[in-house]
Structure formats: C-alpha cells, structure tokens
Amino acid sequence: MERDRSGLHRWLMRATAALCALSGAGLLAALALADRPRLSALVGCGVVFLSALVVFVVRPFGREPRHYWVCSAAVSAFCLAGLVGTWHLVHEDDHHVVIGAEVTSAEMVETYLAQELPRGSAPWRVPTGVYLESIQFANSNEVKVSGYVWQRYSDDIPASVSRGVVLPEADDSYPAKQAYRHREPGAEVIGWYFKTSFVQKFDYTRYPLDRQDVWIRMWHPDLDRRVVLTPDFGAYPRPWQASAMHGLDPQFVTARWQPQSTLFSYSRHDYTTNFGQGRYADRPPFPELYFNLLVSRQFHGPLFETLVPTGFIAVLVFAALFVTTRGDELRRTFVGFTSFGVISFAVSMVLVVAVRQNAIREATAAPGIVYLEYYSFVLYLVVLLSAINALLVTARNPTLVVRWRDNLLPRIAYWPVLFGFSLAATLYTLG
C-alpha cells in the first residue's frame, strides 16, 4: 500500500511539472499575440501556471496536512485574483458594438451613401439631429426615452415633401409635439419633443457586467419619396467624439446605468414588402439612420447582492465537510452526523440557491443563460459533491479518497474547485 502511495506521489509530481510547463508556454503565447490577447487565454494560463508552480514547490517539503492546506489556499487565491481581475478588465474595456456602420463626419456619410444607395438614385438629404434628456429601463426589453429630434429642410426640397420624422420602434411613432420652427438662410429647421417607449432586444449574457446599445431608429414619413436622413453634424461640436457624448443632456438621468458614448450609424434593411407604395421592385432599400447611446451597467449592486448570499452558502457547505468523519466516533456522536442529515442540509441549500437563481431570471428575462447564473450552477455542483461525499463516508467499504487522512481530500479541494469553476465560467462568458 505504501509503495502504491509513493508511486502515486511521483506520478502527481510529474503531472504537476508538465502542467506547469504547458501552462507557462500558453501564457507566453497569449502575451505574444499581436493585437489584443484573448482575456480567457491570458488569465487562464496565468492562474494555472502560478497554481501549478506553488504545488510543485510546496509539495516536496512534506506530507503534513499544513502543506496541503498551503497549496489549497494558494490555488484558491490565484483563482480569486483572476476572477476579480477579469471583472476589472471587462468593466474598463471600451469595446462596443452598434447597429450597422458608424459614421462620425459628413465625409464618412457621403462615402457610405455612395456605396449603399442604389445606382441612379438622387435622393434629397435631410439633416437630422437628436438630443436625449433621460432613459429608463421599464423592463428587460422596454426602455423609456425622452428628448428632442429636429430636421433641417433646405429650400431646394419641394413643399410637397412632408416635414417630419418617424420613430418606427416607439409606442408613439410620430412625435406630435412640435417644439420649435424657424427659418435660417437657405433652410427651415423644425424640432419636435418626444417622450415614448421603445421595445428593443438587449443582450444580457454578461449580466451584470453587460453593456447595452439604446438606439433611436428614424424614418422619413414619405416612404414613396426619395428621401434619406443624414446626421446633422453641424449642430454638434466638431470633430465628433463618441466619448464626449454629444447629443446627451449634461444632467442626463438614468438609474443603474452609466453613459459611455453616443454616435450615429446607418443600417440597411431589405424589407419583404413595399408598404403599398407602387411596385415592390421599384422601391429602393435606402439606408436607415440610427442614433446610438451606449451605456454600461453599474454592476456593483447586482453583483454583490448575489455574491454575498452565495459566499455565505459556500461557507456553510464547506463547514459541513468537517462534520463528515469516519475515524472519530465521539465527534460523530457529538455533532449527530448521519447521511440523512447531510442530504437534508444539501436539499435546503439547493432550495436557497434556486430562489436566488430565479430572482436573476426575473431581473433579466433573458432567453439564455446569463453570467451570474453560473455561480448558482457552481453551488449546485459543490452541494451535490458534498452530499455524495457524505454517502461515501458512511459506506461499508469506503474508497481510498475518503479513507485518506480522514476525508481530507474533499476539504482541501473544496475552495480550488469552487473558485476554479467560477473562474472558468467567467472566462467562458466574458473572455
């Protein structure tokens, strides 16, 4: 038996050394990537490398329980550091995705329209601007927006062309409240005030570290006219800077969201109808104008209100592992350890975790799995493993894992498994 354990020890040392070398090579490869190294490769390889290095260095010094606990604490600390570091990197990342193609100057608009407008078409261009005062997320897919939208009609546009703008995705698509109207040399400027709700599809996969694009989609009311809306860049400071948040009230009001940038974009849609305007083949698909407001969630509240009860449950499950023992009959009698008691405790913990997960589902109403739910899955895993461990401890012929140092292995592996799976889920979802 002692020879088998010695052979197992040597095998583990070789495997640890190989893992250390492979993860170190992976870390160097991730750092050597030219443009932007993948977050998952960088953080994952770094954590595995440091963890394997600690195990490789500490393990040969002895086989006392304290050496195993040192390795367990080091691996857990590295995983936790990787977890917090990933949160910080994702939150500080300025990467954003908007609908269609971004345009930040009149030159970019002309270049885009030259490529996208049908050949031979000579549409009238109507400069259009947007100014937002507030947004409010009514639910997971509905946002209430208030602000102003204006248009500049040059004198060469016939009076037969309607004056107005359509917000096709709003409850009130036609802003009825005209705020102002005046003439300037060579053009007429008309502004409307709107306060309406938009139903939009948001991606909550990264909740609560998610970022959303609240967009204002605009049409001209004359669908049969050859009119294309263009951003009124002359009404904003130049040059356009997305981070300067032009078109946004300095006292912008929103709850739990932080504005990041604003910009215009174009998107082309091929509709399967002509809206009753002549023949379908005669209606060219003009690009549609969008005004985008990118916001990031203030994640501290949702994150910690989930992690605090999650951490409390994890500590309780870990404490329950010290109740499961074989060698100390007096302690077993004193604490009242039974397989049924441990299983009952596991069931109660699962119910608490399920309630927390259901609250997350109600907050997002996402069709898929969101990031915070993975912490519930990790707790399901450790609760299940602790229940299985309790059954193995009371088995008539327990396995070597349970007999070794009176069930020490599940205890020292608990936090590395918990934080390791949490880090893996984080890198999979956010990396």
From TrEMBL:
The chain crosses the membrane at residues 12-33, 39-58, 70-90, 303-322, 334-354, 374-392, 412-430. Keywords: Membrane, Transmembrane, Transmembrane helix. Signal peptide: none annotated. It comes from Allokutzneria albata. This is Neurotransmitter-gated ion-channel ligand binding domain-containing protein. The keyword tRNA processing does not apply. The keyword Transmembrane helix applies.
